[in-house]
Amino acid sequence: MEADVAYAICRMNEIPSQKARGFHLMIVGDDGNPRPWPIIVVRWGRQVFGYVNKCPHDGVNLDWERNQFLDPNGIRLMCGKHGALFELGTGNCVEGPCKGRSLTPVALAVLDDDICVVGVRLVEDEVAGDEEA
């Protein structure tokens, strides 16, 4: 398996600093089958943090409006369903029904100003796009 492959998902400037954006990717699971992999990417200056877009409380996506991930103060990730608050840099829940639990981290790297996911195998476009349309 190509564990060292980096998949560019967007340019750094496509996410404003101190904002978060969701991506709907397809990952190759341990069983070899593709499965949805919704993730959140947070940009804070030159730092980026990634998490699976799934609240540890009940498994729902954090955003109830597209790309609305941050609390009203813009300093924590917030679950739109029950208001759980998560630290941006660690994913730890600091308030709400899942306090003490954490979001699942996603390994990211910034390469040539591209934000890339690393350490996973994504379904490549050629594979996902077959001619059955």
What are the main properties of this structure?
3% helix; 3-stranded antiparallel beta sheet; 10 strands; single chain; 4-stranded antiparallel beta sheet; 133 residues; Rieske Iron-sulfur Protein; mainly beta
Describe what this molecule looks like in 3D.
The protein contains 1 helix and 10 strands; from the N terminus they run ββββββββββα. The chain has 133 residues and is mainly beta. It has one domain: 3-layer Sandwich (Rieske Iron-sulfur Protein). The strands form 3 sheets. A 4-stranded antiparallel β-sheet has the order 2-3-4-8, with no helix packed on it. Strands 1-10-9 form a 3-stranded antiparallel β-sheet, with no helix packed on it. A 3-stranded antiparallel β-sheet has the order 5-6-7, with no helix packed on it. 20% of the residues are buried.
Question: What is the topological layout?
Answer:
Layout: E1 6-11, E2 19-28, E3 34-44, E4 47-52, E5 76-78, E6 85-87, E7 93-95, E8 105-106, E9 108-111, E10 114-118, H1 125-128
Antiparallel strand pairs: 1-10, 2-3, 3-4, 4-8, 5-6, 6-7, 9-10
